[in-house]
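ligand=magnesium ion
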Amino acid sequence: MIKGVVFDLDGVITDTAEFHYLAWKELGEKIGIPFDRAFNENLKGISRMDSLERILELGNKQNHYSQEEKEALAHEKNEQYKELIKQITPSDILPGISTFIEDCKSKQLKLALASASKNGPAILESLGLKEEFGTIVDPASLAKGKPDPEIFIKGAELLGLKAEECIGVEDAEAGIAAVNAAGMFSVGVGNAESMKAADLFVEHTADLNLEAILQAVNNK
Ligand code: BG6
Ligand code: MG
């Protein structure tokens, strides 16, 4: 029986996935590694330093920078990202998400946040969703990032639930892989190609329907 829902943040609750893309793109262009949205799909759900490594790999520049220089580049991206997220208000909650959260609460489902982002708590605050997510997995406490299941397993643990009693909602391929490996029912938001490993997917957050998801869990 489903008793909890573990949410990704960026690209599920709000469209910060776009801000991450813009900030990385600016840094990529500055260091001579331009990339497009298709490549950016590989960065979704991936930690800040791992994202930088992937970009450097794309440009064959992994060995061009010392660890200190890499940290400075990641810091620069984050400063740009923090500028972009200053504009976030509750009106930036993606369509359907507030209703979906309300539906979860009225079914007494417990909610947790499992985001790789260290900016997650600040974003929840700007969205006015801090109260809804009393349970947040601290990404700094993790040994491994998505696609490793650790973050979702921790999310369930913090809720006092078993992974199989939870649904995981994600927009990243790495995130769906993590939810599946945790043993949760995976709900993807995105296109059919990148969400092909999800137990159920919808193209837009507005199409998330708790009844339909619970039905699909029962039919699995
Ligand atoms: C994830 C995003 O939620 O958080 C990634 O999908 C991002 O794109 C990661 O790199 C880490 O975020 P932050 O805010 O700590 O740099
Ligand atoms: Mg995401």
